[in-house]
């Protein structure tokens, strides 16, 4: 077990003032009342004023079922320069954009606090462990992950390690400006374990830092933060957010050192809304903007129809690079062949690809597919040499495709969702959203289809609105019918005919609660339908402008 060099207390406290926690709790209570699938909890505390708080909305819980294979825990905002001890769980969606899996306020930082946080979060996510998790280097978090998520591969943020190294070796960074460049090169560009080990040793000797305690600590922890040791595990890194090495880009720009807890809720909602809009735009671009193909390869055309636009561009980059990375066979043992793949003009650097012709499977020494879920140029070069014209299904991860959010959920999640009425609301919401998006996609293609889709949506909106008006009468009839059934059952079973006043009141309360929940659902469905109608109106306007411009062009 690794611990930081400096002495640390068993508890680190951040004490936000101004009744901020009560402000957040009031907001969370309102959110849960509006949507039963909204989840929040407070760690046991005598007066909840400084208790740790965790919350997650229905959309985040649903997104986790699709993209929860790799998770990032961002704790940057709990550092002393920030006024809010804010923590968030995030990941990547099928566009490579950050997606939220839950948030927390942790004013009392301790091992037990983080154990509670991970257990609570895992419970909210139906007990489904991620494949991997990335966090800052922190002894409390390290112990908590090992205890609560033992099967999950734990990685320390490379950006966080670089930041801490710069702080702890500031004198070296100032006196030797080239050290940082060489240090980063050693960590990021080493392609084999042996290459990293020799480069690291050379670096220590060159700058006379063999006995530095911090570097020794980081070397001992190398298997949890140096990329070459982690490439056999999926982390969802596709370099789409390149330049954003830090963990906090979901809330980047929405929170800073001056953000108070009173302002937190507003900024949280802004960030969630903005990223939701960006995802919808990316969905629209994927469907309506066909990418430009750069090769005659049928595999490229296949990938363009399968992947989202951003992920396809990453695949396309790898495919085009096969033209400059020929594959040379170096061994042939029946169905198993081994190839050396190197870029033209580079004699020292190469990668080894093993290809199984009977199963159409390949593995590369770079392990890009295992790490990012996108096939590398080296395997694609071998496919080209072996005349494999289309992508084998095992090399297309659904989480990177256009259909990532359709179809069945993970089995573990499906069983949990079916057992909980709260989660079933979320499932129905997601299904409705997907169907509505289909109408938008098809309706935007032509004026004729637009009018058909618009009429269908308007009719659906009227029916949903009508449900709300009928609910009160339905509830009253249900109470009368229920009492009538109870009297018949009581007569059959030779028990008193009339229920007690307490039992009747309880029944009325149950039905009233059910009515309120139904009304809330109707409001949600109605709001979403109206949003779709607004989108289609915008599409109609855009189409009209295009038609007008086309007519003007013809006249000219």
Automatic annotation (TrEMBL):
Subcellular location: Nucleus
Domain of life of the source: Eukaryota
UniProt GO BP: regulation of DNA-templated transcription
GO molecular function, a single term: zinc ion binding
GO CC, alphabetical: nucleus
Residues of the SWIM-type domain: 351-387
Any coiled-coil regions, as ranges: 501-553
PROSITE patterns per the UniProt record, alphabetical: ZF_SWIM (PS50966)
UniProtKB keywords: Coiled coil, Metal-binding, Nucleus, Zinc, Zinc-finger
Annotated family: Belongs to the FHY3/FAR1 family.
This protein's name: Protein FAR1-RELATED SEQUENCE
The organism of origin for this protein: Lupinus luteus (European yellow lupine)
């Amino acid at each position: 077990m690794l611990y930081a060099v400096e002495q640390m207390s068993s508890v680190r406290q951040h004490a936000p003032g101004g009744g901020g926690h009560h402000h957040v709790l009031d907001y969370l209570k309102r959110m849960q009342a509006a949507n039963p699938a909204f989840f929040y909890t407070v760690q046991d505390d005598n007066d909840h004023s400084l208790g740790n708080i965790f919350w997650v909305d229905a959309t985040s819980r649903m997104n986790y079922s699709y993209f929860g294979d790799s998770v990032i825990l961002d704790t940057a905002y709990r550092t002393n320069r920030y006024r809010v001890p804010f923590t968030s769980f995030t990941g990547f969606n099928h566009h490579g954009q950050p997606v939220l899996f839950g948030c927390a306020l942790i004013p009392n930082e301790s091992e037990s606090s983080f154990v509670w946080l991970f257990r609570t979060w895992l419970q909210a996510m139906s007990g489904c462990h991620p494949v991997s998790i990335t966090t800052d280097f922190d002894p409390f978090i390290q112990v908590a992950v090992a205890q609560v998520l033992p099967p999950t591969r734990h990685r320390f943020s490379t950006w966080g390690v670089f930041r801490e190294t710069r702080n702890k070796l500031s004198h070296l960074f100032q006196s030797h400006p080239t050290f940082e460049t060489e240090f980063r090169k050693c960590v990021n560009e080493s392609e084999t374990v042996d290459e990293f080990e020799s480069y690291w040793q050379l670096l220590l000797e060159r700058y006379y830092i063999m006995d530095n305690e911090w570097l020794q600590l980081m070397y001992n922890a190398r298997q949890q933060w140096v990329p070459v040791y982690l490439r056999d595990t999926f982390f969802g890194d596709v370099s789409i957010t390149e330049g954003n090495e830090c963990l906090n880009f979901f809330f980047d720009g929405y929170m800073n050192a001056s953000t108070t807890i009173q302002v937190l809720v507003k900024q949280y909602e802004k960030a969630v809304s903005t990223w939701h809009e960006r995802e919808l735009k990316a969905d629209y671009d994927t469907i309506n903007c066909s990418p430009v193909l750069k090769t005659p390869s049928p595999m490229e055309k296949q990938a363009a129809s399968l992947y989202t636009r951003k992920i396809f561009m990453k695949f396309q980059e790898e495919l085009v690079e096969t033209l400059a990375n020929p594959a040379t066979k170096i061994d042939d043992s029946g169905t198993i062949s081994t190839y050396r793949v190197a870029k033209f003009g580079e004699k020292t650097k190469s990668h080894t690809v093993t290809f199984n012709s009977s199963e159409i499977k390949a593995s590369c020494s770079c392990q890009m597919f295992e790490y990012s879920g996108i096939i590398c140029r080296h395997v694609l070069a071998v496919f080209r040499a072996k005349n494999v014209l289309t992508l084998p299904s095992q090399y297309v991860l659904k989480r990177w495709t256009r259909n990532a959010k359709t179809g069945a959920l993970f089995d573990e999640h499906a069983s949990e969702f079916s057992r909980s009425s709260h989660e079933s609301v979320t499932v129905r919401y997601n299904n409705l959203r997907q169907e509505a998006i289909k109408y938008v996609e098809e309706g935007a293609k032509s004026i004729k289809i637009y009018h058909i889709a618009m009429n269908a949506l308007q009719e659906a909106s009227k029916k949903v609105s009508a449900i709300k008006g009928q609910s009160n009468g339905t509830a009253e009839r249900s109470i009368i019918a229920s009492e009538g059934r109870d009297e018949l059952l009581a007569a059959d079973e030779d028990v008193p005919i009339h229920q007690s006043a307490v039992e009747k009141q309880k029944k009325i309360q149950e039905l009233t609660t059910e009515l309120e929940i139904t009304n809330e659902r109707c409001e949600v469905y109605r709001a979403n339908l109206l949003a779709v109608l607004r989108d289609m109106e915008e599409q109609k306007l855009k189409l009209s402008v295009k038609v007008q411009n086309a007519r003007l062009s013809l006249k000219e």
